[in-house]
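Entry 12.
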Amino acid sequence: MKRGIIPTDETARLAALGELEILDTLPEQAYDDITFLASQLCETPVSLVSFVDADRQWFKSRVGLDAAETDRELAFCAHAILEPDDLMIVPDARQDSRFADNPLVTRDPSIRFYAGAPLLTPAGHALGTLCVIDTEPRQLAVNQRRALRALSRQVMAQLDLRRSVAELNHSAAAQRHYEQQLEEYQRVLEENVATISHLSLTDPLTGLHNRRALTEKLEEEYLQRARYNTDLSFALLDVDDFKPYNDSKGHLAGDELLELVARVVKSQIRASDFVARYGGDEFAIVFTNTRLDDAHLLAERIRLAIDRDTPPGSKVTISVGVATASSTIATPNLLIDAADKALYRAKRAGRNQVALATGPRSTGG
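Predicted 3D structure (tokens):
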């Protein structure tokens, strides 16, 4: 294991860290919201707001890790702050000479993947990082890298606001200014909460709703159905032969294809419909106030649009399974399961087609 090199601005960096009076403070929701969002957007089990002190790294906020601090000589973040302007990514720590024999790699928590965005002061001192960690080797998509950098700037914005409030607390003469700053602080927090809420329900690659948002939508629609006896249909879409395409053309091309499919699907749905990325190369659509035959027509329109509108170099087709809520499909999970089985039949029948849930489950009411 290679010891981390001390940054050339170490004295000024530690002084800036000390001035914030952030070390060993209690947890705060604003930072916990950011680590939660980083973990969700980057799809990693661990996310940390880490500050690199003289002989330790201390975590202001953490998701998926029990330890509150580690020795600095073990810290991946101690390496990340050496290049303040860059995002440090370690795809597989076992293959990196800096970390291959690090106890955090060879023993629990068995770090494999690491990505850290430095937390920079206006003077350019890297105080620590907002980082995400996984126990499996991997990479980040371009949008995930951008999101991690953006969230690291949000950490610094929270620190600046925190320091402003602390300074104003020492000055009774600045009471009015203090109140204005608190109002601004509250406004920024509310904006951040709104942004975090939106991003936590959004797929970072396609910009569509994510699976969590889909779950909430289906629960909401089933409540509406129970109250007003409304029709509700649901479709699962799967990109045909996506894995061979991804393997032959590379993950970046695969991501671009999923973005293209998302745009075409979104262009074909109605304003009342709800589309989400269900996972991998699967998409889901909630058709509100829609019976099975109408949902079938809408799904067929989407299938034809995909077949027609994707360019020759990215020619792609989709298979679709459609189901409708009924007395026997009385929960969101049963609706998803019915559509999934229909999708499986469409795949087995040759792909590039729409299949409907069969039997009594396909009837509305």
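Annotation: Residues 142-169 form the longest helix (28 residues). The radius of gyration is 25 Å.
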